[in-house]
Design brief:
Elements: H1 2-24, H2 40-66, H3 71-81, H4 83-105, H5 111-130, H6 133-138, H7 140-165, H8 173-202, H9 208-211, H10 215-247, H11 254-275, H12 283-290, H13 294-299, E1 309-311, H14 315-336, H15 341-362, E2 363-365
Antiparallel strand pairs: 1-2
Helix pairs in contact: 1-2, 1-5, 1-7, 1-11, 2-3, 2-4, 3-4, 4-5, 5-7, 7-8, 7-11, 8-10, 10-11, 10-15, 11-15, 14-15
Length: about 375
């Protein structure tokens, strides 16, 4: 059930991103004049995908309560008495209204319809924030922060999704990259700032090293590693690609935009993992109850006894750091040399792997 929930969380984020992108593509200056054929049936499927995928985490809770009562009373109890149930009920109502709106107007090409669609998408993002860790710990501030974070992520990824697979190949890519870059930069700044605030709700930064002992902290660390190649691809597609298109307007930017999208997909997957883990607020009791992160058991070859981490730098650490930096350099070379973008994507994954091995080799649990 754990892995099912992780993937459904990822699909939930993708549904939000698809809806945000399908409306924003009508509003961005670079694409508002282009006819992008997005079926209203796909939008309806994404709306109900949100309701369905958001319901999956409730199943385990309902099943657990149903063991002491009937299934009907357990379902009612979860929806009315638990925060996650209240959030899903709100989300379900939003999805009903959203789907009625899409079915009623049938054609979402107009800017007015796109703005209304973005409002509904925003409400759905805040519904997801209601059920988050931040919402549980910090109340309205947590819900608002997580909702803003989700909306900014959805806007960023959704536009990439549209540019990667839905816009025509004949689109003016130079115009798109020029106008999309400031929009993506704004989204990135909002995501980073809200992400830092969300992390403060669930992780004491003074004990960040200790948080790395459990699955939540490990997922957060891997997520931060993936942000490094993501920033590099943002530079590729936002600055260097613009210069390359100025020299050759017929160049297709789509493959490199897809690479950026797939890097973000890994970050979404790690976010889904984090949402299913207990935040490291009470480390000793968490380790006693849940144990150390399974990935540590796989790669850490020292003795795991305690809830503190110290650094021990040796030759193997610097070796893996050098390999990680070589992967970043290789990714830049592949872009500059106009090689296949898939090679760059692979070197980015290798950077994360080498960076993680450098971390594993540098720690001592005591």
């Amino acid at each position: 059930m754990f892995f099912v929930t992780i993937f459904t969380e990822t699909f939930l984020y993708l549904c939000l991103a698809f809806l945000a992108g399908s409306f924003l593509i009508r509003l961005l200056p670079a694409t508002s004049h282009i006819r992008v054929n997005i079926s209203s049936n796909l939008q309806l499927a994404a709306v109900w995908g949100i309701a369905l995928f958001a319901f999956v985490p409730l199943i385990q809770l309902i099943t657990h309560i149903a063991g002491r009562s009937t299934l009907g009373s357990a379902f009612e109890d979860v929806l009315l008495s638990f925060r996650i149930g209240n959030a899903w009920l709100f989300l379900f109502i939003i999805c009903i209204l959203f789907s009625v709106y899409i079915a009623y107007i049938k054609n979402t090409d107009s800017k007015q319809a796109a703005w209304v669609g973005m409002v509904f998408t925003g409400f759905a993002a805040f519904g997801v924030g209601w059920a988050s860790h931040a919402g549980s710990f910090e109340g309205f501030l947590g819900v608002f922060t997580h909702g803003v974070h989700m909306l900014a992520v959805s806007a960023w990824i959704g536009t990439l999704l549209m540019a990667s697979w839905f816009v025509p190949k004949s689109m003016d890519w130079q115009r798109f990259v020029t106008s999309y870059h400031p929009f993506a930069l704004i989204c990135f700044v909002i995501v980073v700032l809200s992400g830092i605030l969300l992390a403060q709700f669930t992780v004491d930064f003074r004990q960040y090293d200790e948080a790395l002992l459990v699955s939540y902290g490990q997922s957060l660390f891997l997520k931060q590693l993936f942000i490094i190649p993501l920033v590099i691809y943002a530079i590729f597609n936002g600055i260097w690609m613009k210069r390359r298109l100025q020299a050759d307007a017929s160049l297709q930017a789509r493959p490199w935009i897809r690479v950026e999208f797939f890097i973000i997909l890994f970050i979404l997957l790690l976010t889904g993992i984090m949402n299913e883990q207990s935040p490291p607020l009470y480390m000793e009791s968490l380790i006693e109850h849940s144990g150390y992160a399974p990935i540590l058991n796989m790669f850490y070859d020292g003795t795991m006894d305690g809830a503190a981490i110290s650094l021990a730098l040796d030759g193997s650490v610097f070796f893996f750091i050098a390999l990680a930096l070589a992967c970043i350099a290789g990714s830049i070379y592949i872009f500059k040399a106009k090689k296949h973008p898939a090679l760059s994507w692979l070197t980015s994954l290798l950077f994360v792997v080498m960076g993680y091995f450098a971390f594993i080799q540098s720690i001592v649990i005591n």
